[in-house]
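ok trying this again, last paste got cut off
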Amino acid sequence: FKYVISSESTMTQIISLSQETARLDFECSVEWRESRKLLKVEFPLNVQNETATYEIAFGYVKRPTIANTTWDIAKFEVSAHRWADLSEWDYGVALLNDSKYGYSCHGNVLRLSLLKAGKSPDPDADMGHHQFSYALFPHKGGFQTGRVLQEAHQFNNPLIVRNSLIT
């Protein structure tokens, strides 16, 4: 698919399924020339929970999906590593990525920030060509029993097949 973001920016996306995994993969190529804009992807899910789970260094953190206080409203985005997950006790969906680190979940909508066109401190930050991937991974159970960590690792470290001559 090719999307026209604006007269200055475009995005080409390949969406694929594989018989080896339950993931839905998105490979993206973006020409980004925006000013004061934020590009996000969002997925409304058929999953309800008061908290979402995010991978951080050496573990994970849970954040509320409903903003009840001004403190909750201020936590509009979570800095996380390879995945974010919204799960009920028997089913969940994880959003995996290979190079993006800003997630949010409000209600049942899981989001990932893809590109930012801020003006400070560097007005040219993120301008130009970008290649990145993300994936949706539905699973049984919570993120631990649903093998989200393993799937995120496989997504970020795919096996590389090479021909070689063994003598």
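PB: full thing came through this time. The longest strand covers residues 128-140.
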